[in-house]
Design brief:
The longest helix is centred in the middle third of the chain and has 30 residues, at about 245-275. Mean pLDDT is about 85; it is low at about 195-205 and about 235-245. About 55% of the residues lie in helices and about 10% in strands. α2 packs parallel to α3 (about 90-100), α8 (about 185-195) packs antiparallel against α9 and α9 (about 210-220) runs antiparallel to α10 (about 225-230). The protein has a five-stranded parallel sheet with strand order 5-4-3-6-7, with helices on both faces. The chain is built from 19 helices and seven strands. By secondary structure, the chain is of the alpha/beta class.
Length: about 400
């Protein structure tokens, strides 16, 4: 991303960078509200009907509020809900839409509809893609296309304004890894305990064994980026990038890593494929270069956990309408895998199917699947990745 190729007759193609994320914090003051408002206003220029994705969280609510503030008519907003109350945030989005006076539309992602979408995922994404929020993204795009041709999205705010919880707890874990590194034998002891299992020691072990293994792994890694990749990985391995040491630099390094990898390869890729599957154009105001520049030129300590965005949003919407724990585009995959998707998982998680072609080691997958079915552990994210790979392989006969 941010590069183009130059081809010259008789020569080798050359890579040319036209944009890179600024990496030096200079503690400069920026008027983020004005920057975002101008970004939203410029991206609302369209000769076709336009709307906004509204999940009810801080990011999309602010984009919606700014869009409505510069519009002379009700902005069309779109939300996906779930039958499962624990994951359904459509009621919050509706309250925000009512407060702002938007033309609001809601659709529910039922289990039966999800099954239909799952079987089509290899067609839409071409490659194995394992972010389960691809399901509501596809339905959201399908619904929006019935009313508009362009939509604004709140993607990118988490990377720019410290929205992910892992930025907070990651720093604490890295410090613990440094401490363990200094204690003789501590890393080895942690590794042994985590591999032996904790079922007889802890009543509800959940994913503690994996966390201990990751902590032991981080204790022998020197580069911050190696530790970060270990932290976010669902199956253990250790790729690497570069390091920094102070607290501000730790946050910046994690954000920068996500800007270069997670954002383009997951978040933007997910929505681009989902929207283009329904000929819908999605625009991302947070990723205007002026906003990115300002976010990375401001001290991370000023951001808090999206404090800059919260301070802006409360000018437009009462705090009680959006102040709640972050969910993202959370999908009830854990529950579905134990119920309606159980037969599908059983089909793709058979030992011979898993080991076909020599791609996967079936034993750890089957162990996680057994634990997940029993309800003693929640391995939804790791198992969803395997399921997507298996469906993709069967679709393309690989």
């Amino acid at each position: 991303q941010g590069h183009y190729l130059v081809f010259e007759k008789g020569g080798e193609p050359k890579t040319q960078c036209y944009y890179s994320v600024p990496q030096n914090n200079i503690d400069k003051e920026f008027d983020f509200e004005e920057l975002l408002k101008q970004s939203v206003k410029s991206q609302m220029v369209s000769d076709v009907p336009l709307g906004v994705f509204l999940s009810g969280g801080i990011d999309s609510s602010l984009i919606t509020a700014l869009a409505q503030s510069v519009s002379d008519k009700p902005v069309k907003t779109f939300t996906i809900g779930f039958e499962e109350g624990s994951h359904d945030e459509s009621r919050y989005a509706k309250k925000i839409a009512n407060h702002l006076g938007t033309d609001h539309h809601v659709e529910t992602l039922t289990m039966n509809r999800a099954k239909d979408i799952i079987t089509d995922l290899p067609h839409y994404y071409d490659q194995p893609f394992a972010d389960s929020s691809q399901l509501p993204s596809l339905l959201l795009s399908e619904m929006a296309k019935k009313h508009v041709t362009v939509c604004l999205s709140g993607d990118g705010a988490d990377e720019l304004f410290n929205g992910y919880d892992r930025y907070i707890y990651g720093e604490n874990i890295f410090k613990k890894a440094d401490l363990i590194k200094k204690i003789p034998g501590a890393r080895c002891a942690l590794s042994i305990i985590s591999h032996c299992g904790l079922n007889h020691i802890i009543k509800k072990p959940e994913n503690i064994s994996l966390k201990l293994r990751k902590l032991a792994e981080m204790a022998q890694q020197d580069l911050l980026s190696e530790r970060y990749r270990t932290l976010i990985n669902l199956w253990m391995d250790n790729p690497s990038v570069r390091d920094s040491s102070n607290d501000d630099a730790i946050f910046s390094s994690m954000r920068l890593h996500d800007m270069h990898y997670y954002l383009p390869n997951d978040i933007l890729h997910k929505m681009d494929r989902a929207s283009m599957a329904h000929s819908l154009e999605v625009r991302v105001p947070y990723l205007d270069p002026t906003v990115i520049h300002a976010a990375f030129q401001t001290s991370v300590s000023q951001h808090g956990q999206k404090q800059i965005l919260k301070d802006m949003l409360k000018k437009y919407i009462p705090e009680h309408l959006y102040e709640r724990p972050k969910r993202g585009f959370s999908v009830p995959v854990a529950q579905w895998m134990r119920t309606d998707l159980k037969d599908m998982c059983h089909h793709y998680f058979q030992k011979d199917k898993l080991e076909e072609g020599g791609f996967l080691n079936a034993n750890p997958i089957l162990q996680k699947w057994a634990q997940h079915k029993r309800g003693t552990h929640n391995h939804q994210h790791a198992l969803w990745g395997v399921l997507m790979l298996q469906i993709w392989r069967e679709h393309y006969k690989i």
